[in-house]
Amino acid sequence: MNQRKTDERKLIQAVAHKDKEALKELFQIYHKRVFRYAFKMLGDYENANDITSDVFVTIWEKASSFKGYSSLSTWIFGITRNKTLTFFKKRRYHVDLKDTNFAHDSRETLHQRQDLQLALSTLSVEHREVLEMIFFLGLSYEEAAQLLKCPVGTVKSRIFHAKKLLGKFLSSTPEHSASNSTSL
């Protein structure tokens, strides 16, 4: 077992024994990635913050149920995914691009990010979440398949089709069709 997995196992075991300092350390390691995943899926800062909080409450309550069959990050993102999907089901939620904060971007970058955000919002939840897992969270295809409870081939297929749909959408927007240099 490598050092990182050993450290993670010790950390989650400490959380399971209700060590608040261990939970703080786990929070420092994962909260930005958990928030980013929730925000990318929901497009809403407040709801992503709520989900992030819920994830860490669940980690605190369920740490003893972590058996180590997967990496700790896979387990944590499984909790995050489940919380996000539950939110979608309860609220029949749709991404509202007005709430997305692009305040610090240049005008050109702002337009590119808004186009990408709009393109992502046209994808199904299944396509959006697999892109998020692979390209933004850096999970392997195997880890994503484990989280999604599907074969690796399904993950690869969803990536392929999501990229194809994004390319089609982005090439149909006026700014991108003239000079489509964006590669997915």
Could you explain how this protein is built, in words?
This protein has 184 residues and is mainly alpha-helical. The protein has 2 domains: 1-94, Rna Polymerase Sigma Factor, Chain: A, CATH 1.10.1740; 102-184, Orthogonal Bundle (Arc Repressor Mutant, subunit A). 74% of the residues lie in helices and 0% in strands. The protein has helices at 3-16, 20-42, 45-62, 72-91, 107-121, 125-136, 141-148, 152-172, 174-178. Helix 3 crosses helix 4. The longest helix is centred in the first third of the chain and has 23 residues, at 20-42. It starts with a helix and ends in a 6-residue tail after the last helix.
Lay out the secondary structure.
Elements: H1 3-16, H2 20-42, H3 45-62, H4 72-91, H5 107-121, H6 125-136, H7 141-148, H8 152-172, H9 174-178
Helix pairs in contact: 1-2, 2-3, 2-4, 2-6, 3-4, 4-7, 5-8, 6-8, 7-8
Q: What is the fold-level CATH name, i.e. the topology of the largest domain?
A: Rna Polymerase Sigma Factor, Chain: A
Low-confidence stretches at least 5 residues in length (pLDDT < 50)? 93-103, 176-183
Strand pairing plus helix content: what structural class? mainly alpha
What count of structural domains? 2
Helix tally equals 9
- Which architecture of the largest domain does the CATH hierarchy give at level 2? Orthogonal Bundle
Percentage of residues in DSSP E strands = under 5%
